Amino acid sequence: MRWILVGVSGLVVALGVARLGGAQQQLDRISVDEALQLALRQSPTVRAQQAALASTKAGETTAALRPNPSMNFLAEQFKPGASQQDTQYTVNVGQPLELGGKRGRRIDSARAATQVASYQLEDIRRQITLQVRSAFAGALIAREQLALAQENVKTLDDTERIQRLRAEKGDISQLELLRIQVQRFTFERDAADARQALSAAKIALRTAAGAEHIAEDFDVVGELGFKEVSLDKAVLMRRALDNRPDLRAAEADRARARADHRLARANAWWDITPQIEYQRIGPDNTIGFGFSLPIRIFDRNQGEIARTQAEISRVDAVREATALQVLAALETDRQIALTQRERVVSLRDVYLPKATVARDTVEFAYRRGGQSLLDFLDAQRSYRETALAHLQALGAYLSAVYQLEADIGGPLD
Length: 413
Known about the structure:
This protein is of the alpha+beta class. It has one domain (30-408): Outer membrane efflux proteins (OEP) (Up-down Bundle), CATH 1.20.1600. Helix content is 71%, strand content 11%. The strands form two sheets. It has a four-stranded antiparallel beta sheet with strand order 2-3-5-6, with no helix packed on it. A hairpin with a 2-residue loop joins β5 (273-281) and β6. The chain is elongated and about 135 Å long. 26% of the residues are buried. Mean pLDDT is 85; it is low at 12-24.
């Protein structure tokens, strides 16, 4: 009994440790690199494509198999009351020999199909990477917008507290205090919008990276910064044509279609089956040789040859259309990135510093009676609009950069 109790206690402790370890796996703080690793490892879409790749690769094993030999056994001349000498036994063994290079063509076709599936897996990873980076950038932007809104609310609250004392002393009217309180709604609305955007971005990030590994109330780790990259059109187009997985998959599909066509032509050849036969009739034993082959007069695989030839034309057109779509999307995203970069730089270096100085100056003067309430509120609104515009432009620029990286199938220099 004592040993049973010890064993049960050990099992309970082990289960508790396992539960604790499982609970510790959930992250409450996550960086973009950690989110990417989780997403690429845990995403159901990635796992599904990995299984599809394994399934397609198994076709190479099937394609390399040789035909099985065949054997026939025949017993004849059984008659009631007849002697054993009248009984006849025949064993026939044959091995089909594939002609026309069928086995090699099958292997080429299977390998080409595996190559297509591998590029499709890379393309899924490319899309997952874009999804995670965009969601992470959205979370950073929303976090900064929330901090800005809270800062604006705090500034207005500090001003309201001071002006309430002045209103109680009669230095300012209650109407002026009321206007400050009404203005507070705008900043509260900004904070509520930022919380909603942050929640949506976290949901998207948690869904993409794997909800079972990330706590519901988690924080993103990272700084929102401007990323200067080269946007040379010729370089980007060349990299896209060389690296895009979906474009490479289309090119591999062309190779697969041509391999299928060669296989269809090889299947038009007839196969020969050499045979060896052993026959026993009563006490006599005989051995014979022969072969069999189909006489391909009507079915010469014409339909499959025509189908694979048409498939070549189809995948050629698909590859061309894919290349045109890739280049068109790349140029569109490049123009967006150029526009947003100019906007970010202009707001960061020119307008935001001016709006900050104007707000601080007017606030300082208003608290000492040197500026009117309308001037103070107008300066606050201008700063709010400029700061929000800067964050929105920065978010749009980062999204454009991430989209460009997805367009070219790799990081921007």
